[in-house]
Amino acid sequence: MKTWKNKNFKTSALVASLLLMLCSAPAVSGEYAQLAGNLAEAAKANGITRIAMGAFSASAGTEEEARFAAEKTASLLSSKIGLEILDQATLEANAGPKGSWLSQLPSRLRPQAFIKGSVFKGEGDLTVMAKLVDAASGRVLETIEIRSAARFTDLPPVPELNWDSPPATAPMHDNLRDSVADTAFDCKGAFREMTRINDGAVDLKARYWALKMKEKGFVFGSLTRNPGSEFRDPQVKQKFYELLAKYHEQDAAPAISEAQTKKLEDFMGREDAVIDRCGIY
After folding, report:
1. DSSP secondary-structure letter at 277?
2. Which of its termini does the chain have fewer beta carbons within 10 Å around, N or C?
3. Which has the closest alpha carbon to 203: 239, 249, 227?
């Protein structure tokens, strides 16, 4: 692989700076801090110090999201001074028959309130609703609703990487390229094919690089070019950086299957070969 050319240093530094600015945005989990804070305030206002939390219900396709919402909310509430957060499933399992489990608990473990939650899928985001319910009366003391970015959406399919057909062999004359192109290779045709594939791979590439950047020992300076520099359309490039920042800030970047990773890396290897041959564009 080639190393950075001196004339590309300013450009690569600018893109790296953009990445750092995007990745310094507030963490995506901020909405859950708001949810937990409002629930804690409602508990304090009603003299409640001991709360049991169970699983959040999920609409179709949001099971992982609901698990995350419940665990994140419980974790944040547990850090609040003056609140004791109990796991409802554990209490039920240890108390006895389900119909009378609450009355069988010793007073020191009996919750004063429950948190009930639901997660619904919207267009591009999620709605999370949580209720603080009085354990004795069943009265809803507070209802909080937040919007959250989806974390576990199905990954889009890897675009068809149709590199089997050889490109046209017409010579190309382009004074804007950084390196001399082989006149037997159609750089413009190769770039058009790369653009077609990349337009459908923006989200997948953002997920891939978010995971890479979280790997132990990852060094940004080890790359031969900045992720995203291959996108020709400025709006597509901006979308890639926004997605990369979003996924990088998440507690766990969305996973990619081994098959998807292999196919994407194969494409990016061919992409690198075209850039090395024809120059960055």
Report:
1. H
2. N
3. 239
User: Burial code of 51-88, b = ≥16 C-beta within 10 A, e = fewer?
Assistant: bbbbebebeeebeebbebbbebbbebbeebeebbbbeb
For the domain made up of 30-149, give the CATH fold.
Rossmann fold (3.40.50)
Give the integer Cα–Cα distance in Å for 212 and 176: 31
- C-alpha to C-alpha distances, 14 to 7, 9, 22, 171, 178, nearest whole angstrom: 13, 9, 12, 33, 18
121: which 2 tokens?
Answer: 């899928």
Q: What is the pLDDT of residues 2-41, one digit of tens each?
A: 333 443 343 344 344 444 444 433 344 578 889 999 999 9
- Residue-range domain boundaries for the chain: 6-26+154-278, 30-149
